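Retro notes, item 3 of 5
We never archived the inputs for the 6-O-phosphono-beta-D-glucopyranose complex last cycle. Fixing that now. Sequence and ligand:
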Amino acid sequence: MTIAVENPLRAGSRLENMPQPATLVIFGATGDLMKRKLVPALYNLSIDGYLPPNSQIVGFARREWSDEYFRSEMCEGVQEHSRRPFDPAVWEGFAPRLHYLRSEFDNAEGYDQLRTMLDRFDKENGTGGSRLFYLSTPPSYYPVIVERLGEAGLSGRNIAKESGYTRIIIEKPFGHDLESARALNDHLHQVFAEEQIYRIDHYLGKETVQNILVLRFANGIFEPIWNRHYIDHVQITNAESIGIEGRGRFYEESGALRDMVQSHILQLLNLVAMEPPVAFDATPVRDEKVKLLRSIRPIRGNLVPEQVVRGQYGGGVAAGKDVTPYHEEENVSSESTTETYVAMKLFIDNFRWQGVPFYLRTGKALTKRVTEIAIQFKQPPLSIFGSEASRDMEPNVLALRIQPDEGISLKMQVKAPGTGIHIRPVKMEFRYGGSFGIEPPEAYERLLLDCMLGDSTLFTRSDEVETAWSLVTDILQAWSKMPPPNFPNYEAGSWGPRDADRLLYRDNREWRWP
Ligand code: BG6
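Structure as it came back at the time:
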């Protein structure tokens, strides 16, 4: 059955509001994110009518680019990465709204020029004083950009609502550990109010991630069994078949724990495990998320080697492609101890989840690209059909497939056809693609639109980001005191290190093969 949806971004009353015209300033606009994600998202938003025609886009970066060159690079980006096919006629209307401003990020003059430009757009294009700053530079530049924006009088603080809005989006990584995340928050708060700050985690913009809350809270049948009485354990898998793709410099400073667990994986965990918020609005949703993160039992000291496994890929073939061992990648030390894989077991100390293990794993250069959350239910208390009939019985598993082949499946037991009783597992499946027959908007479309509308529900609040860092920092500190790991310890194209399997074997469980 195909379910008709006119425009997925328009569906739902929240989006009856249209964004006001604004100028979007993207710092670091010559980078990969702009070309691959941001400009294609803006192009698609403009086709959907969500980027008012007078809105302007300014790329602020250090390279010697002209407006024309900037436009031609962005055109390439749209041609290669837009979810809708490139349409030259649409591009002709879109391109003149792109402007380039060359400046060092710490140069006050650049910000004076920016202010003049913004004022001009307000007068000539009717952008009404509304500004959205997007920090997509290496994170070390965040503090200075924020400071210069403040000095140039561009913080928009204490400005009447009628004079437009000023908001700032911060790309991840938001800090490097708890201390640096706190310092960055303090820095931001000196210039911007918390309501103006949008910390982005693109996983929250994914349709299937948002659907976790819909599945849990818009269906009557799941919530009563969504707890320790019925659930045996939860597995969250985020596997990538690609390696680090030339990002050696960034990755050496980061590693999988910081890059994926602190942000995306904890977000997934949060949406599966949080209590129902009183409404799907920024404050109630984010209050519940912080509460959940605070209920996670910290993993410290000796518990770290017991509950956390790290790995680094060697050579091999993943998804049909040869993979260079991590430590031979460009800008990676041959002795690198940076982890490209993490698996962990954690517990949530609250009434709902007490005693239920959550197993999380994420890694690069694994067998295939897949992200899923599997909720495994407890077995029936007694098998009345006898051991022979029940030989192939498996526990019920509700699997939420985040990507690719987005969907939901429920594994159940049925009687295999025949005269005797033989029980077999079968899957009931729902697939987004097949059911709705349309491609969902990209995460960045949704998130940019939300920010323009002033809806911060899907963005991370300062206390949330700090609580997530606190959990991760405990592990980082324990690792720093342990002897260096024996890397590489998994072959590219495998499912990760053996120790990750042992983490579950010890509990008489095993990882799924999604
Ligand atoms: C980014 C990480 O935040 O997310 C990357 O920095 C990772 O290392 C990427 O590859 C994964 O995103 P997605 O949407 O492809 O699952």
